[in-house]
Amino acid sequence: MNNLFDINKKVALVTGGSYGIGFAIGSGLAKAGATLIFNDINQELVDKGLKAYKEAGIKAIGYVCDITDEDAVLEMVKDIENKIGTVDILVNNAGIIKRIPMHEMSAADFRKVIDIDLTGQFIVAKAVIPSMMKKRSGKIINICSMMSELGRETVSAYASAKGGLKMLTRNIAAEYGEYGIQCNGLGPGYIETPQTAPIRVDGHPFNEFIINKTPAARWGRTEDLVGPAIFLASKASDFVNGHILYVDGGILASIGKQPSA
Ligand code: NAP
Ligand code: GCO
Prior knowledge:
By secondary structure, the chain is an alpha/beta fold. Helices cover about 40% and strands about 15% of the residues.
């Protein structure tokens, strides 16, 4: 039974893996036996990640690479393949959010979010797929969002990107399933990370809103995502393809609790 979740010696690349959700998933995959590689946008963040992984007793290999720079991504993947081996597991995690009312958002800001949160995922997946095709196996896990299914004020660009990422996930599944590649989404709910810190502070109306909206009555923790990620990275999900696995404490299942009188 335990072979189903065995990812020992698999080469895992986690984008944006210096902290937050990427760090938690990267740590979980490494503890499950994978060879962990991560990238981040600058050396400072990569060093921060290397220090954090080392403190957690995890051997990680870090690359400075902007996922929107296709040449840089191809160079990183080539270097990984030459020095370590082909990427078996890709976790497309890197991303940004800009919370701006749509009528006040510049087209440049909108494009930047799409470029990182959608085009960047395309670029990295495209870079690893050829070797996965040759190997006739591979796991691609795209980090989606509640905003892959729902909209809300101020996140038009982010929701457009995450909705697009859901469909990119399904399209990769449809196009490459015959090569033994599974591409699925992992859709976190509202998780305690630096990215949500501005809307999570005590007293912020959104903080109470989310706790009422989530049947689990709490914000998610990055650790909540590790088990689902290992499932999608392992043999246990070999016949799961094009699925978005929501890890949201039940948000999408519920209309939300009525506020107490
Ligand atoms: P985050 O702040 O979104 O961290 C993402 C990481 O990606 C950061 O290290 C970030 O660096 C890096 N990054 C940004 N742009 C990049 C680029 N062009 N190239 C390479 N790396 C880049 O933190 P998070 O909350 O852990 O989110 C991780 C993923 O989960 C994101 O895709 C996010 O949309 C998604 N998500 C988050 C939540 C949540 O509640 N937190 C819920 C659902 C989905 P910088 O520090 O320089 O930005
Ligand atoms: C927001 C939040 C969310 C989370 C996440 C939810 O402002 O609504 O940042 O978008 O980041 O994507 O799943």
